[in-house]
Amino acid sequence: MRAWRLAGVVAGAVMVVDQASKQIVVSAVARGSRTNIFLGVDLTYVRNKGVAFGALGGGGGLVTALTMGAVALLALYFAFHTSTPYLWLPFGAVAGGAFGNLADRLRDGGVIDFIDPILWPAFNLADAAIVLGILGLLYVIEGPRLQR
């Protein structure tokens, strides 16, 4: 139960920070505008109706179903491996990021993206949590084996 609680705290924190940052962008940045915040990274406000980088744009229910299915499979894996040290941290990050983006999709029909680096599609903090969480999952699951 401790691992589930810790994962829930991480997921909740990711969702709160993600949703708060998106609301700040919505209230302070004109849709489609671009402001350079530092070398090579712009602050913008765009809506992404697809999954990562706009793939499956207009997928609507399919995108939601894929997201829920992926999180359900990850939760199932986590349920059988809660004793794995620190697995709760990347699981919570991925789940929180996925639910943060899903909240946008259900509320607004698309995900709010606002971090726009040169040569990379715009993304948000939930996306960053998902990517870092997946990298963390790979490390927690495979890392100790690589050291043997």
Describe the sheet with the most strands: 3 strands, antiparallel
Query: What is the helical fraction, as a range of percent?
Result: 55-70%
Strand content: 5-15%
Which ranges are low-confidence, i.e. pLDDT below 50, for 5 or more consecutive residues? Answer: none
Overall pLDDT: 89
* Structural domain count: 1
N-end to C-end Cα span: 30 Å
**Count of DSSP helices?**
4
Q: Quick one: how many beta strands?
A: 3
**SS content category:** alpha+beta
Q: Radius of gyration over alpha carbons? A: 16 Å
Query: Which sequence of strands runs across the widest sheet?
Result: 1-2-3
Shape: globular
**Element order, helices and strands?**
HEEHHEH
Structural commentary:
The chain has one domain. The chain is 61% helix and 14% strand. A hairpin with a 2-residue loop joins strand 1 and strand 2. It contains four helices and three strands. Helix 1 runs parallel beside helix 3 and helix 2 (61-80) runs antiparallel to helix 3 (88-108). The protein has a three-stranded antiparallel sheet. The radius of gyration is 16 Å and the shape is globular. The relative contact order is 0.19. With 148 residues, the chain is α+β, with helices and mostly antiparallel strands.
